[in-house]
Design a protein that fits this description.
This protein is α/β, with parallel strands linked by helices. It folds into three domains: 213 residues, P-loop containing nucleotide triphosphate hydrolases (Rossmann fold, 3-Layer(aba) Sandwich); 65 residues; 190 residues, P-loop containing nucleotide triphosphate hydrolases (Rossmann fold, 3-Layer(aba) Sandwich). Helices cover 41% and strands 23% of the residues. It is built from 18 helices and 17 strands. It has a six-stranded mixed beta sheet with strand order 5-6-7-3-8-9, sandwiched between helices. The protein has a six-stranded mixed beta sheet with strand order 13-14-15-12-16-17, with helices on both faces. The chain has a three-stranded antiparallel beta sheet with strand order 2-1-4, with helices on one face. The two termini are 47 Å apart.
């Protein structure tokens, strides 16, 4: 139903993909995984012929099938449209699709009033739902989805999982949600950048996500063990031959000229030693696996006493212009508690987190770290990565910052380059590094794992779990909720309800 032949993607100064070929058939669910900046979104755009910023060669065959594309974000002009203008060409189109429209409106728990709302006034999750709704109204044959899970509430995530799993239409998708990947993918395309991100490699397997991760780790571990053993044996044999060579050389230097028979024997022995050395040199040793290095970072120990009150907020009303979101919100946080606020899309979670930030940002007895839903909220006053992470700092502090960024797999070009050139996942890692370097002890995190690759997310969850400061967060990431969070609050129209 869909084919790619010998696809190359090049963006100066490196190839993102070389010689990729694949076929997608009925029922195939191909998940594209890889670290931030490895070209996952660019590959989707190249398939569709809209990666105008890249040099793309190769062939893509849709064989007459209609393709539906869920882009990662909308441009500013589109965001000024109302939902109705975005979804329908005209009134006739609206009435032709009205049955399907209301079906999905109910599934996504959206109110029909959303039709007349400009897209830019919607929450992040509502924007995703509207984009998905447009896709389903188009009745396509092949789905190409770029981060469909971003900002979706848990109920919608579970519906999307069920849809991907049960549809027989081919789907190509990028997602950082490990639970969704584990429950839906039956093919994996893993994009890597090796040798300081200058050599691309791709791995294509007809396999589920969990099995791929386990098998990949098993193969890497096994090959590493064999490579280390062979290297050790090689050194032992080399050392043994070197001792024999030295002994023969000593004997040759001291043998009497009157013993030509002995000299011939030593010459023959040296010939054998050289032959064994040559054979050893030609040994094909198993190489250490060439893989992308895992990210590494850790917070220094901070001191938040268990009895220290971090936050006590009482809001009679939580509202945005022309809309009341919730009433009677009370939240009391003390000590190194890890808490998370969940709720339906549009319930006001991000608005509440901003209110909490206003309460905490001028406190002198804590060091606050804030990760917003849209990163430009904190990056808007900075142009380059080093400006953001080490502006006004000493040479020693800048060196330390570069070392930390290196541990997060930033290249030298990324460290000295513009923030605007980074992928969203790389921006998330930059914010985490800022928190580490500034020794933050209270973190406000709006969807901290949503843009980070599923291969890096386990590391981030582990670090946040071990963080001995306070975390107040928003997330729909089920693994994050399970592994990092102590208390979960559900935001409803009538306030916060403690779930656990």
């Amino acid at each position: 139903m869909f084919e790619i032949e010998n696809l190359d993607i090049y963006i100066y100064p490196r190839y993102l993909i070389k010689n990729l070929s694949l076929t997608l058939n009925k029922g195939d669910k191909l998940a594209i995984i890889g670290e931030e900046g490895n070209g996952k979104s660019t590959l989707l755009k190249a398939i569709l012929g809209i990666a105008n910023y890249a040099s793309v060669t190769g062939k893509v065959h849709f064989h007459g099938n209609k393709v539906g594309y869920l882009e990662q974000s909308l441009d500013e002009n589109t965001l000024m449209q109302t939902s109705k203008e975005f979804l329908f060409k005209n009134e006739n189109d609206y009435y032709e699709k009205i049955g399907t429209f209301y079906k999905y409106l109910e599934i996504f728990e959206l109110n029909e009033k959303i039709l007349n709302q400009p897209l830019h006034t919607l929450s992040g999750g509502e924007k995703v739902k509207i984009r998905m709704l447009k896709l389903f109204l188009e009745e396509v044959d092949i789905y190409i989805l770029d981060e469909p899970t971003n900002d979706l509430d848990i109920a919608s995530l579970e519906w999307l999982e069920k849809f991907i799993k049960e549809t027989d239409k081919p789907i190509i998708y990028v997602s950082h949600d490990e639970t969704l990947l584990a429950n839906t993918a039956n093919k994996i395309l893993h994009l890597e950048q090796l040798k300081k991100k200058m050599e691309p490699r791709h791995t294509l397997e007809k396999i589920d996500y969990d099995t791929y991760v386990k098998e990949r780790l098993r193969k890497i571990t096994h090959q590493t063990q064999i490579a280390k053993f062979e290297k050790k044996e090689f050194k032992k044999k080399s050392a043994k031959l070197e001792k024999i060579r030295q002994k023969v050389e000593r004997e040759q230097n001291t043998i009497s000229r009157s013993d030509p028979h002995g000299a011939r024997l030593l010459k023959k022995k040296m010939h054998n030693v050289k032959a064994q050395e040559k054979k050893l040199e030609n040994t094909n040793l198993t190489p250490i696996p060439d893989i992308e290095e895992s990210i590494f970072f850790a917070f220094e120990k901070v001191a938040i006493p268990k009895t220290k009150r971090i936050l006590k907020i009482d809001l009679p009303v939580l509202e945005v212009p022309n809309k009341v979101l919730a009433k009677n919100i009370h939240l009391d946080v003390s000590g190194p508690m890890h808490s998370c606020i969940i709720g339906k899309n549009g319930s006001g979670k991000t608005t509440l987190l901003r209110k909490i930030k206003e309460e905490l940002e001028n406190r002198k007895d804590i060091k606050l770290g804030y990760m917003p839903q849209f990163y430009e909220e904190v990056f808007k006053d900075y142009e380059t990565v080093l400006d953001f992470i080490s502006k006004g700092k000493s040479k020693e502090e800048i060196t330390k910052a570069r070392m930390y960024l290196g541990n997060m797999n930033f290249t030298s070009d990324e460290m000295t380059g513009k923030i605007s050139n980074l992928s969203n996942g790389t921006k998330a890692k930059l914010l985490l590094m800022k928190f580490v370097l500034e020794k933050c002890d209270v973190l406000l995190l709006d969807e901290p794992t949503r843009n980070v690759s599923p291969l890096s997310n386990p590391v981030i969850r582990k670090v946040l779990k071990e963080f001995d400061g306070t975390i107040i967060s928003i997330s729909h990431d089920r693994k994050y909720l399970e592994e990092v969070i102590d208390k979960v609050y559900l935001l409803t129209e009538n306030g916060l309800i403690e779930q656990r």
